[in-house]
Write a structure and sequence with these properties.
The complex is a heterodimer of chains A (113) and B (110). With 113 residues, chain A is an all-beta fold. Chain A contains no helices and 11 strands. In chain B, 0% of the residues lie in helices and 57% in strands. The chains are: A mainly beta (113), B mainly beta (110). At the A-B interface, strand 5 of A face strand 5 and strand 10 of B.
Chain lengths: 113, 110
């Protein structure tokens, strides 16, 4: 079974630029999460999708971050405009059912200069 | 959002020793508890879950839960250099499926 796929793996941008990250979950996993992990911290949930609907986006900075999962499979997270403090690893995770294990993708390392 | 607290370490133990990692949580209604391992530059992977008070053993790993004290720990017996990683404690809280602690960095010295 293929794991969670993410791209790109690394991205360097200047502040005020925009960036987009892509995630393809494990086949059949209805739930998809985006996390932000700042160096030295644990992952922090940004948004949770169940199929193509948003379950929780209370911690997503909506003035600059947006995410979608239009067909209930892959998902895109966008930052526009980026700030220095957005430098982090952005992790995507998927889950078959709400009580089951979350599987993480390899992450996208973002550096904002 | 409720908190999950861990000592950030680093925790250094000699090879073959027992490593003890601790975690406290603030949400009294939490019913499930998870330990993730994260190697440097890699993503977290689940190594243990525990739902009832007491101990749960899986190979060299033992998770211990005390809901009254809001405390969960992970013991690693016969520690190996390959166990060197950051260990993240994660607890569901409110509407958030997993709230992670900052992690404890473990270093096993050969």
């Amino acid at each position: 079974e293929a794991g969670v796929a993410q791209s790109p793996r690394y991205k360097i941008i200047e502040k005020r630029q925009s960036v987009a990250f892509w995630c393809n979950p494990i086949s059949g996993h209805a739930t998809l999460y985006w996390y932000q992990q700042i160096l030295g911290q644990g992952p922090k949930l940004l948004i949770q999708f169940q199929n193509n609907g948003v379950v929780d986006d209370s911690q997503l900075p909506k003035d600059r971050f947006s995410a979608e999962r239009l067909k209930g499979v892959d998902s895109t997270l966008k930052i526009q405009p980026a700030k220095l403090e957005d430098s982090a690893v952005y992790l995507c995770a998927s889950q078959r059912g709400t009580q089951e294990t979350q599987y993480f993708g390899p992450g996208t390392r973002l550096l904002v200069l | 959002q409720k908190e999950v607290e861990q000592n950030s370490g680093p925790l250094s133990v000699p090879e073959g020793a027992i490593a003890s990692l601790n975690c406290t949580y603030s949400d009294r209604v939490s019913q499930s508890f998870f330990w993730y391992r994260q190697y440097s530059g890699k993503s977290p992977e689940l190594i243990m879950s525990i739902y009832s008070n007491g101990d749960k053993e899986d190979g060299r790993f033992t998770a211990q839960l005390n809901k009254a004290s809001q405390y969960v720990s992970l013991l690693i017996r016969d520690s190996q250099p390959s166990d060197s990683a950051t260990y993240l404690c994660a607890v569901p809280s409110g509407n958030t499926p997993l709230v992670f602690g900052k992690g404890t960095r473990l270093s096993v010295i050969a």
